[in-house]
Write a structure and sequence with these properties.
188 residues; alpha+beta; five-stranded antiparallel beta sheet; three-stranded antiparallel beta sheet; 6 helices; 8 strands; 30% helix; elongated
Length: 188
């Protein structure tokens, strides 16, 4: 049987009630560079929201069904040594904090990323086909806004345009039908 490279990750979005090291798959493209102490971007929760995490350790194991993969490495080298990771795990047990909160206290200032989601018209998608796939009025409004902005629009501006209405169902519909793609970028 083939074994894969897996890791335990402290996830930034985990609240104290659900805080634990989560297991993720290291994709083959990242295996050579991934090391404990490096920050990563991972899908988290049922909505697979992209969040920051830190690799606590690496190990070989069997891939299980539903195991999520690390999306990207955010650092070129580890930000924390193994001693600091052990200290963070001890702090989690000793004090009322998440593992990631303990880690964050040890990381140098200026390392944190702001994630920005941007919705884009899928490559090769023309305007007529996009509108034909938009069955809800809200989906048509989303397309109006994105096409008026040159084929892409940041999520924040899209939410502002909808005001108190929720564009979530329309966005999911357009993403599932391949009309839109979601791009997440990280900036310091």
């Amino acid at each position: 049987m083939q074994t894969d490279l897996l890791c335990h990750i402290a996830v930034s979005s985990a609240t104290y009630a659900i805080d634990k090291p989560y297991t993720y798959l290291i994709p083959a493209s990242l295996e050579e560079r991934a090391q404990p102490g490096m920050r990563v971007m991972v899908p988290f929760g049922t909505g697979n929201r992209r969040v920051e995490g830190l690799i606590l350790d690496l190990f070989s194991g069997q891939r299980t069904k539903g195991l999520k993969a690390v999306l990207a490495l955010l650092d070129e080298a580890p930000m924390l040594a193994s001693e600091s990771i052990r200290l963070a795990l001890w702090m989690h047990e000793r004090y009322y904090c998440t593992v990631y909160d303990a880690i964050k206290a040890m990381l140098p200032a200026g390392l944190y990323f702001a994630l920005k989601d941007r919705y884009c018209i899928s490559p090769g998608m023309d305007k007529a086909a996009a509108y034909a796939a938009a069955h809800r009025p809200a989906a048509q409004k989303v397309l109006d806004l994105i096409f008026a902005n040159g084929g892409e629009l940041e999520k924040g501006r899209l939410l502002e345009a909808f005001g108190t209405s929720d564009p979530g169902p329309a966005l999911r519909e357009l993403l599932e039908q391949g009309v839109l793609t979601l791009e997440t970028s990280a900036s310091r």
